[in-house]
C-alpha cells in the first residue's frame, strides 16, 4: 500500500511538506511582534510556499549530492525550517532582486568579490 504522506501533487509538492511547512509558518509568525492581518496572511503564505516549493528542490539536491535517497525525516525537517523562515526568505529575495535591478553590473561585481574603488556603489 502506498504511503499517504507521499501523495505528490502538482510539480512534486507533497501534502506532508505543505502541512509541516504551514505548522512552521504558524510558529514563526507567533514569535514576530505586532503584525496586521494582511501582513500575517502574507507571512503565512510565504512560509507555506517556501516549504512547498523549495523542499522538493532541497531534497533533490541532497539525493544528487550524497548519491542516496533523501530520508523522510530530513524532508519533513526541511519543510518545517523553510516554513518558519519563509517570511524572511521572500523579502530577502526581493531585496536581492531590487539590488540587481538598480545596478546589475555592480551586483555581479559584488558577487565576484570585486568592489569599485572607494567601496560599494
List keywords for this structure.
single chain; 121 residues; mainly alpha; 4 helices; flat
What would you say this structure looks like, in words?
There is one protein chain. With about 120 residues, the chain is mostly helical. The chain has one domain (about 5-110). Helices cover about 70% and strands about 0% of the residues. The protein has helices spanning about 15-30, 35-65, 70-100, 105-110. The chain starts with 14 loop residues before the first helix and ends in a 10-residue tail after the last helix. The model has no long low-confidence stretch (mean pLDDT about 85).
Provide a concise account of the structure shown.
With 121 residues, the chain is mainly alpha-helical.
Quaternary: single chain
> What's the number of domains?
1
Number of helices: 4
Poorly predicted runs: none
Q: Looking at the structure, what is the overall shape?
A: flat
Gyration radius, to the nearest Å?
A: 18 Å
Class by alpha and beta content: mainly alpha
Helix content: over 70%
**Main sheet summary:** none
Strand segment count? 0
Mean pLDDT: 85
Q: What does the secondary structure layout of this molecule look like, with pairings?
A:
Layout: H1 15-30, H2 37-66, H3 72-102, H4 104-111
Amino acid at each position: 500500500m502506498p504511503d499517504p504522506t507521499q501523495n505528490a501533487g502538482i510539480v512534486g509538492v507533497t501534502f506532508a511538506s505543505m502541512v509541516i511547512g504551514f505548522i512552521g509558518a504558524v510558529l514563526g509568525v507567533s514569535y514576530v511582534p505586532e503584525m496586521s492581518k494582511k501582513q500575517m496572511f502574507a507571512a503565512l503564505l510565504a512560509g507555506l510556499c517556501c516549504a512547498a516549493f523549495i523542499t522538493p528542490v532541497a531534497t533533490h539536491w541532497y539525493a544528487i549530492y550524497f548519491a542516496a535517497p533523501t530520508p523522510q525525516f530530513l524532508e519533513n525537517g526541511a519543510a518545517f525550517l523553510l516554513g518558519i523562515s519563509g517570511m524572511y526568505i521572500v523579502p530577502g529575495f526581493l531585496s536581492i532582486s531590487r539590488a540587481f535591478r538598480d545596478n546589475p553590473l555592480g551586483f555581479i561585481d559584488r558577487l565576484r568579490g570585486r568592489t569599485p574603488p572607494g567601496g560599494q556603489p
